[in-house]
Amino acid sequence: MTDKLQLSLADDLHVHLRQDELMKEVVPYIRKGGCGRVLVMPNLKPAICTVAQALEYKSQLQAIDNSIEYLMTLYLNPALTIDEIKKAAEAGIVGVKSYPRGVTTNSEQGIEDYEIYFPVFAEMEKQNLILNIHGEVPSNHSQNICVMNAEEKFLVHLEKIHKNFPKLRIVLEHVTTEAAVQKVKELGKTVAATITAHHLELTVDDWAGQNHNFCKPVAKYPSDRNALQRVVREAHPRFFLGSDSAPHTRNMKETACACAGVFTAPLLMPYLADIFESIGCLDKLKDFATRFGREFYSLPEQTEIITLEKVQEFVPSEYFGVVPYRAGQKLNWKITANV
Amino acid sequence: MTDKLQLSLADDLHVHLRQDELMKEVVPYIRKGGCGRVLVMPNLKPAICTVAQALEYKSQLQAIDNSIEYLMTLYLNPALTIDEIKKAAEAGIVGVKSYPRGVTTNSEQGIEDYEIYFPVFAEMEKQNLILNIHGEVPSNHSQNICVMNAEEKFLVHLEKIHKNFPKLRIVLEHVTTEAAVQKVKELGKTVAATITAHHLELTVDDWAGQNHNFCKPVAKYPSDRNALQRVVREAHPRFFLGSDSAPHTRNMKETACACAGVFTAPLLMPYLADIFESIGCLDKLKDFATRFGREFYSLPEQTEIITLEKVQEFVPSEYFGVVPYRAGQKLNWKITANV
Predict the structure, then answer these.
(1) Which residues of B lie inside 8 Å of A (Cβ-Cβ)?
(2) Is residue B332 part of a domain?
(3) Which pLDDT value is given to residue B1?
């Protein structure tokens, strides 16, 4: 039985680091959670819509912890020009994030129609930028669309973008459904998906009345959760770690109308070791968290090594006012060396 | 345009009146909400398992408001004997409520297998008692059963009980799915269903992160909600009012792990007038709330008349620490006379 793992620092290719005071609290936990490189989401207030904003945000993050590599993204919006895409590529911005309007935290500026972005996508394809997609359509009750099928209903849009831009690398973020897993597999080598730690465990039962497990996309049926577990178990190289770690303070969760998001950053690798062991594929963790993502993003391997050991610890009830995933529960793995 | 409705006091054939202090707060609101007769749920602590307990509970309720007719139920459990069913019939107990184990508030003593109750059901059929069923199977992830399909997966059990006891009157409580509506229609005249006010409006989108709308069974897809609206619009006589009004104090809702239940009792008829008008069937409200239920239960018509008028008022933010349904929102109907 494995009771010790050594692997390089992980790549978390989808994380919310927030801004201002919350940013200062969150950023130091990236490394504590076992990650050395993160793809930073741009849904701030105001949203990160320009290269200048992204670079300013990056410098703020570096001022807090300069040992982390921050991969920056822009927020796809109607004001984003082809020229800005060229500048983004020159400045080392990695991706452009698309949010459908109104489906999650700070997505009020999200998009309603993808075709108007085709010129931008064409330039992104040329500049080798990645399109990061929050793949849900907004609820529309006359079309029977709600949070439970919003991801599946989005897949036609994903397919259409891919067919028009077959060389554009697309990441369907935080997939939650069997349908999405199948579609990403089917679309071939330029289309990948991130999977969060929590979606490997949760189902709709876990967020019914339990707001700390409420996130967007919502966790779905057990069969969907099982499909996510299967795809990591089979070590499919286009499915890799993006935690979607998204801190909201307790008062924003334990309230009448909760914010969407699960906070996993501080214990990300211990959560994953625990989950991968429980689903019988601990040997697949390394590639999921340190290889498949960087290969899709064409990034070098990280050199620093961390050690995870089979040591029980309890998840704290709170970090700086934020209740983490599985608060108060036991984890079987712990990072014991993080050089 | 109708701007005034006169109808007899309504029959709410599914309500939670609680016990002790909360009971004393809740009961006076039955009549304020426009109801004169209620079927009282037995899931107290301890559960109402005997005729003696039911009669004691009834006398407590009468001591608070003697103008309401309380139809009492027993909690189906392994200790319930055929002799107790006979006594229940003699004592005027109306129904026996079945809870699947663990699916809702105080259902830990709920049942796991219906066949062991067949002798009890046979006696109930003989004594003309009604079987009131919370129709959900417990979540079972290896069988892909979760809160979203727990009602649909229950329908085979409903059908089996009905086939074995075709004369036993069964009420499938608080139906939430198109599948349940169809099954109840199909099973014929001894099988009926209650519908709550809130399930005529809510979908899964409304309880995602919003615990005040979280109840069991959970609200489902828009297509399911539409099926409920359709069946009241067509005035099907075996679908009638059971509010499932279930007060939980704010601190039990705005918390990490919320209790299930929506509190509608204080404004039940105004909510319904508002909803029925919005779905274009205000003319069907009277039969839904005052006729179909009593006919299925073989009860006389209530004689006291209430008046609802099209007068806007806002739902209070709270009653005695409990946040009501649609708190703070506008209602278009108000009870202006309640003799």
Answers:
(1) 139, 141-142, 144-149, 203-205, 207-212, 214, 218, 221-223, 225, 253-260, 323
(2) no
(3) 77
Closest approach of A88 to chain B, Cα-based (Å): 36
All residues at 6 or more sequence positions from B288 whose CB lies less than 8 Å from its CB, including other chains: B195, B232, B235, B239, B240, B241, B272, B276
According to the model, what pLDDT value does residue A65 have?
A: 98
- Collect all residues of chain B within an 8 Å Cβ-Cβ radius of residue A148: 148, 204, 221
Of A105-109, B34-38, B132-136, the poorest mean pLDDT is in: A105-109
Task: Tell me, yes or no, whether B320 lies in a domain.
Answer: no
Residue B270 — very low, low, confident or very high, per pLDDT cuts 50/70/90?
very high
Pair A247, A265: CB distance under 8 Å: yes
Within-domain flag for B333: no
- Structurally, chain B folds into a number of domains equal to 1
Say yes or no to pLDDT of A100 above 90: no
The answer to ipTM > 0.85 is yes
The span from the CA of B311 to the CA of A30, in Å, is 56
Q: CA distances (Å), A117 to each of A78, A122, B175, in order?
A: 8, 9, 44
Query: What CATH number is attached to the domain comprising B207?
Result: 3.20.20.140
Cβ neighbours of A259 in B, within 8 Å: 209
Range of the domain at B61: 11-304
User: How far is Cα A300 from Cα A290, in angstroms, rounded to an integer?
Assistant: 10
Q: Which of A144, A212, A218 lies closest to B221 in CB terms?
A: A144
- pTM for the model stands at 0.96
- Is the pLDDT confidence value at A111 over 90? no
Q: State mean pLDDT over A203-220.
A: 98
Residue of chain A whose Cα is closest to the Cα of B201 = A141
